[in-house]
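During the reporting period the student researcher (J.K.) took over the structure-prediction task from the postdoctoral fellow and processed the backlog of single-chain submissions. One of the processed entries is reproduced below for the supervisory committee.
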Amino acid sequence: MQRLLTVILACIGMVGALAIDTYLPSIPAIGREFGVGPLAVQQTLSVFLFTFAFMMLFYGTLSDSFGRRPVILIALALYTLASLGAVFAPSFGVLLACRALQGLAAGAGSVIGQAIVQDRFSHDQAHAQRIMSHIMMVFGLAPAIAPVLGGYLHVHFGWRSTFLFLAIFGALMILLVYRGLPESLPREQRHAFHGVAIAKNYLKVLRDPQFLLLSLSVGLAFSGLSLYIGSAANFVMDILHLPETAFAWLFIPMIGGMVVGSAWGGKAASRIAPGTMMWLGFGIMAAGSAISIGYNLLFVAAVPWAVLPLAVYTFGLAVAMPAIQVGALALFPDNRGLASSMMAFIQMMVFALMSGMMAPLLFGSALKLAWGVGGSLAVSFLCWRLSRMLAPPAEKLA
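J.K. obtained the following structure tokens:
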């Protein structure tokens, strides 16, 4: 049963990752078809990420009030319709609007999935951390597969076929959730949907500096990935001089490290204290970042050496992040959905800002990208250390 739950939660969490990554090889072709420049086409990613982040603020609260299943099903239906709209978009403006709707709908699975894990395993935080690691491991397959699949779909059927694939995947997720995901929040534990009460709960979360610092730490650590995802077309085709079908050179090492790190972290969670896991994860991320900077200082970027340090970085990311996420959500046991929404919102806002605004400034330079990752990691580590200073004495020893 736990394996089925892990697969379902990972699959509905993939919805957002697939919408981000599958169409990346088609970005130049979209610009050519609609006669817009690369910065304009980049907004199809930025708009998606900003609406994705915005709606994440509310999915947890909605699921706290109306239940986990109904909110996920409605969001998946909207996502499927928006994907179909993108398939038939007659203009760049319509495509941009469909991407905005996709973003609004795509975050339900990842936000509510975290709340479902807490619903079921709040009595055993080590078990919750292990389940989160397993979900990350399965979820990690999406960003690795998506741009490779998107490249082949683009070459053989055109860029619109990538959005048809997203629509079909959304429809399959509706069926999977409807048939296989039971409700995890009993009616008697739901909160009434009152605006004033909800606003007070949001303020309660926002006023907790430890929660905010942990959420920023997660977002900034993941922003190392967002720089490469936002720069993927430029990095693969202009820096590495590879074709549209070669995105695997970037995404397989990047996501492979995360999958392996998640698998190891899930097994180690029961015998290694969360604090130790966090230190270990940050140390591995720092090593990956340092290797990347050193390589790009000395050599011209080329495969496989330009991408292998990313596998080291994401291995460390997968080791540290589940423990940080579980610890942050545990601060609000009575508002898990809302806390999950707030954490996801902060993470995705950082992701959107980095991929939409910072990544274009780093186009054309592998060294600048490597420094960008190192800078994000340094600020992430600082936020985490500050959060530990604010933790109760017992938690500092964990």
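The committee noted the following: The first helix runs from residue 2 to 21.
J.K. will present the remaining backlog at the next meeting.
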